[in-house]
Amino acid sequence: MAAVTSAPTTTDRAETPPRHRWSGGSVLLVVAILLLALNLRAPIVAVSAVLDTVRADLGIGAGTAGLLTSLPVLCFGLATPLASALLARVGLARGVLVSLALLLVGTVVRSLDGLPLAIAGTLLIGAAITVGNVAVPVVIGRDLRRHTGAVLGMYTAALNVGSMITLSFTVPITGAIGWRAALAAWGAMIVIAALVWWRATRSGGSGPAPDSPDSPDAASAEDVREGPVWWRRPVTWALTAAFAGQAFAYYGVTAWLPLLLRDELGMDASQAGVSSSVFQIAALAGAFGVPLLLRAFRGPRVTVLIVCAAWLALPLGLLLFPAGWAAWCAVGGAAQGGGITVIFSLIVRKARDLAENRQMSALVQGGGYTIAALGPTVVGAVHEAAGGWVAPMLVVTASVLVLTVCGTAAAGRAPAR
Questions:
Q1: Are residues 196 and 229 part of one domain?
Q2: How far apart are CA 351 and CA 217, in angstroms?
Q3: What distance lies between CA 44 and its chain's CA centroid?
């Protein structure tokens, strides 16, 4: 699941020369972005495929094991200001290289012996990925302006492909060399991404991020807006709650779906890892389908309801008819890919100007990801306490209902302009 940032500023656009055709440099930059995207969710998802093995080896409970997937998400919510400060100070190109170096260190440290090092490495991974979350959409908007839609689609796809690859192959690699070496082995992808990124950006890409103090567009526009201050608008908090419900459900399911498939359907670890990747790759349908739905219907509320109904099919389907897991994972996966798309489409619709767009986006992501970080831990703890998967799936269902209620409320409010 990709973090979405606001659109590039008008100042950025004015300073960016138009590019109508693909140049060799822009193609190389796209390749670098896609390789980077493969690493922006994979390190988190990889551990979920072997979470039961990690838990047994470290001698920890399900709730504690959930920290290995929830702490990076907490970083997404809390470390965004630090990531923005880093990018403003060293520039986008060098900032991403720093984040990749930090990601590699975190991947190695997490695989060393003992729970404290596993936690420390996980925190490093979360901080590193946060920088990438902030930087990549800005790079796309600034350096690939004429191809923004296509590249953002490819970028979103690469996030999910990275998750699919690690879910599919971490278990077989673990069977051959153990879970520690298996998780560390994914560091090779990080090295490749860093080398291509350095080659693609070595001649530029070091300007300040749009929200940095050096950017002219960082000035507030509240004095020319009509209506309440942005953070007092009910739609802002409705979208924050909706995104929290979406992200809580996504990370809770991502962390524990492989183990659920093993317990409920008798799959071995390798089969469960490959099967759960359906949930990740199906997100592509939602990411590209939601814009079509938004254009097909007069208002966004119908699209929100369609997405939420599809989301509910996953936990309820697994409860009522687990043998149909492939259909539930595909439908729910498309919904989780569409959920984040529709929420940020609503931010664009409801924001009264570009500055408010950035402010609302920051609050929605920061608050939502902070709550979502509890998803893997809460779902794991409920599973351990209940001794089965009915109660955890009801928790996921409740989270999706929060998305439904708050998302439809936000979609029904007219923009205050």
A1: no
A2: 16
A3: 10
Number of H helices, E strands in the chain: 19, 0
Close Cβ partners of 309 (under 8 Å, ≥ 6 residues apart): none
Find, among 16, 4, 3, the residue nearest to 145 by Cα.
16
Dihedral of CA 157/101/198/74: which sign?
positive
pLDDT tens for 157-173 read: 788 788 888 888 998 99
Domain with 65, as residue range(s), is 1-8+20-209
For position 285, which CATH number holds?
1.20.1250.20
Residue 357, pLDDT > 80, answer no
pTM of the model: 0.72
Which structure tokens are listed for 18?
Answer: 């138009």
User: What pLDDT, in 10s, does the model give residues 190-222?
Assistant: 999 999 999 999 865 444 444 444 443 444 444
**213 and 88 Cβ atoms separated by less than 8 Å:** yes
**DSSP-assigned states of every residue in 333-395:** HHHHHHHHHHHHHHHHHH-SSHHHHHHHHHHHHHHHHHHHTHHHHHHHHHHHHHTSSHHHHHH
SS3 246: helix
Residues 205 and 228 in one domain: no
Same domain as 325, residue 392: yes
d(CA 6, CA 13): 13
Q: Based on the number of CB atoms within 10 Å of its own CB, is 401 exposed (0-12), middle (13-18) or buried (19 or more)?
A: middle
The number of folded domains in the chain is: 2
Closest alpha carbon to 207 in 93, 36, 100: 93
Are residues 95 and 203 located together in one domain of the fold?
yes
Strand ranges (DSSP E) for 241-388?
none
Give the domain-ending residue among 209, 233, 251: 209
Closest CA relative to residue 41, chosen from 105, 104, 132: 132
- Give the position of tokens 């709550």: 371
Q: Does residue 246 sit in the same domain as residue 146?
A: no
